[in-house]
Amino acid sequence: METAAAAATATTVNGPYNSFKIMHKPFMWFTSQSFRTRPIASEQFPEMLEKFEDDFPVLDVFICTADPYREPPGNLANTILSVLAYDYPTEKLSIYVSDDGESELTLFALAEAARFGVHWLPFCRENGVVERCPDAYFSSDNYAENSQLHKIKLMYEIMITRINNVVERGKVNEEHISNEDEQEAYSKYSSDGFTPHHHPSIIQVLLANNKDKDITNVFMPNLVYISRQKSKTSPHHFKAGALNVLLRVSGIMTNGPIILTLDCDMYSNDPSTPKRALYYFLDQSIWPNLAFVQSPQRFHGLNWADIYASEFKALAHANPMGMDGLCGPNYMGTGCFFKRRAFFGGPSSFEQQEMIQDHVVNKPIEAQTILEQAHQMASVNYENQTNWGSQGMLYKS
Ligand SMILES: O=c1ccn([C@@H]2O[C@H](COP(=O)(O)OP(=O)(O)O[C@H]3O[C@H](CO)[C@@H](O)[C@H](O)[C@H]3O)[C@@H](O)[C@H]2O)c(=O)[nH]1
Ligand SMILES: [Mn+2]
């Protein structure tokens, strides 16, 4: 009897599952047919950008990271360098990194990326490098061996070794600290009462585009580290909360009308990406109704033989073309250029004068008033006292 009962139970569990296995393919096929009704293939025309050459919009790039052990800081440094080296006017480019792991190890990776970046950016420019993520570049065989290459590769390896050593020790030691400012920055993580779940905000400007230059005397883009305030008594809303803080802090510091969101476990594989996104943003015929431009994602290591050539053709190419003909593709959570204006217009819009759409920031990123306001934007109280996140779908969906 017992055996029969067990078998009967197994049948009832398997029944619906088997039906699902049989039915899900036709169901998937059926639901995707709407994407075949009006696919749109778009093309970009480089000459279109020429008339805007001196007037490119300010671009703010957001990178999220949350755990220095699960998301290695060496990879984050590579992500940062791939966008820091974009083919875009450096005075119009800012990289904001949100660290939800609240870790000095992550700050150290940013500091190292900034130090190596002053060599890497000119190297990429002079050699027309396409893969501007150093790890991807050095892992390819797409370069000529020469002394300049050996020098930059050695610098890269030293940077990665330093980052990995610090991660292994779990601490930034004296030997890695070169001045008092750095000492002060790293000491914040061991100050009294600091825990990952309860601590004040930490904002560090690693590179400022009005004072830091590369080795060829060209100004570097901005690079900013943000560990938002956390409190045991307030929910932090994970990545959504991090993106909201990045939106507000960048609004105070640079207020770029175009925003790119990235995760720390990916890199940009084409330096012309922001300019290619601009073809859409600067096209007056589509600009008023355009909220975001989503890039396709490629995944490495999906399976051993990489039979998909790192691509999800249906999900990343075919379906979005079809969605474009309906009302637009979905946001894939990363690799997406947004119009900042698209985030405003709801009830939380204009609570802060500085964040209105046309506000032009005319103070240096490290000005005392800017830093004070930025800390206020990264505080738990700011969100508790306003409608940010409490209205609309965001945190409640
Ligand atoms: O408290 C947190 C938790 C996560 N993250 C960041 O969020 C990103 C995505 O998290 P991950 O765990 O890597 O999720 P995935 O499943 O790989 O991400 C895919 O799916 C997510 C959920 O749809 C999207 O947010 C991502 O953009 C998309 O790449 C990473 O950069 C994390 O560092 C934070 O910033 N704060
Ligand atoms: Mn991920």
UniProtKB/TrEMBL annotation:
<keyword id="KW-0961">Cell wall biogenesis/degradation</keyword>
<feature type="binding site">
    <location>
        <position position="71"/>
    </location>
    <ligand>
        <name>UDP-alpha-D-glucose</name>
    </ligand>
</feature>
<feature type="binding site">
    <location>
        <position position="239"/>
    </location>
    <ligand>
        <name>Mn(2+)</name>
    </ligand>
</feature>
<dbReference type="GO" id="GO:0016760">
    <property type="term" value="F:cellulose synthase (UDP-forming) activity"/>
</dbReference>
<keyword id="KW-0808">Transferase</keyword>
<keyword id="KW-0812">Transmembrane</keyword>
<dbReference type="GO" id="GO:0016759">
    <property type="term" value="F:cellulose synthase activity"/>
</dbReference>
<keyword id="KW-0472">Membrane</keyword>
<keyword id="KW-0328">Glycosyltransferase</keyword>
<dbReference type="InterPro" id="IPR005150">
    <property type="entry name" value="Cellulose_synth"/>
</dbReference>
<keyword id="KW-1133">Transmembrane helix</keyword>
<dbReference type="GO" id="GO:0012505">
    <property type="term" value="C:endomembrane system"/>
</dbReference>
<protein>
    <submittedName>
        <fullName>Cellulose synthase CslG</fullName>
    </submittedName>
</protein>
<dbReference type="GO" id="GO:0071555">
    <property type="term" value="P:cell wall organization"/>
</dbReference>
<dbReference type="GO" id="GO:0030244">
    <property type="term" value="P:cellulose biosynthetic process"/>
</dbReference>
<feature type="binding site">
    <location>
        <position position="263"/>
    </location>
    <ligand>
        <name>Mn(2+)</name>
    </ligand>
</feature>
<dbReference type="InterPro" id="IPR029044">
    <property type="entry name" value="Nucleotide-diphossugar_trans"/>
</dbReference>
<dbReference type="GO" id="GO:0009833">
    <property type="term" value="P:plant-type primary cell wall biogenesis"/>
</dbReference>
<dbReference type="Pfam" id="PF03552">
    <property type="entry name" value="Cellulose_synt"/>
</dbReference>
<feature type="binding site">
    <location>
        <position position="100"/>
    </location>
    <ligand>
        <name>UDP-alpha-D-glucose</name>
    </ligand>
</feature>
<dbReference type="GO" id="GO:0005886">
    <property type="term" value="C:plasma membrane"/>
</dbReference>
